[in-house]
Amino acid sequence: MDHNNILGAVLAGGKSQRFGEDKSQVKLGDKLLIDYILSEIIDEFNEILVVSNNLIKFKYSKKISLIKDFKKDLGPLGGVLTAMKWAKDNNKNYQWISTFPADTPFFKNQILKDFLKNINLNESKLFFIKSNNTRHNIFGLWSIDLMDKLEEDLNKGERKVEIWANSIGVKSINMEFENEDPFFNINTKDDLKKAMENLEND
């Protein structure tokens, strides 16, 4: 698969209600939480979007652009559509959007490589990672061809990634991990403490 056809997008537009502040901006060890995922994916793509309605910080790279949701309160699906619209409005040649959350500090570059390597583009227009029988709906590869359908369904009120993906016909790429969960995500202050403990034990 040609990585030049893929635009990376980190969906950092969530309200972090359970956390109490913008969790992408909290420090975990010596780095901002969002910088963990960015550092693992930056070498795979020519460009990466960070979709957030806040003026958030992250480690500077000329590859990374910060953009706002084209319309607020549409959830992760709105962030995906925002990335698609950005590609179209800026006359980019990307055919796919590869999406990531901002709150998974243990995700590794090799997982992304394996995910993309195991995709057969003829099988679907939407692919998610599945690990140990859990599907990770924000770790996805979305065809730009889905843009009009996605916008139409968002306008009708659809907000749930799980439901929309199932209606489209998503293909899961399964992986198995025996030890720590690389998809562990930080939703609460307790999760942040656990992540810190994991870091210290590594």
Task: Note down, in words, how this protein is organized.
- It is a single chain.
- The chain contains six helices and nine strands, in the order E-E-E-H-E-E-H-E-H-E-E-H-H-E-H.
- A hairpin with a 2-residue loop joins strand 2 and strand 3.
- The longest helix is centred in the middle third of the chain and has 15 residues, at 75-89.
- With 202 residues, it is α/β, with parallel strands linked by helices.
- Helix 2 crosses helix 4.
- It has a single domain (3-201), classed as Spore Coat Polysaccharide Biosynthesis Protein SpsA, Chain A.
- The chain has a seven-stranded mixed β-sheet, with helices on both faces. A two-stranded antiparallel sheet has the order 2-3.
- The mean pLDDT is 94.
List keywords for this structure.
two-stranded antiparallel ribbon; 202 residues; alpha/beta; single chain; globular; 7-stranded mixed beta sheet; Spore Coat Polysaccharide Biosynthesis Protein SpsA, Chain A
Provide a quick synopsis of the model:
This protein has helices spanning 33-41, 75-89, 109-117, 147-155, 161-168, 189-201; strands at 6-11, 27-28, 31-32, 48-51, 64-67, 96-101, 126-131, 134-143, 171-175.
Tell me the strand order in the biggest sheet: 5-4-1-6-8-7-9
The CATH architecture classification is Alpha-Beta Complex
Q: How many DSSP helices?
A: 6
Number of strands: 9
The H/E string reads: EEEHEEHEHEEHHEH
CATH topology term: Spore Coat Polysaccharide Biosynthesis Protein SpsA, Chain A
Low-confidence stretches: none
Largest sheet: 7 strands, mixed
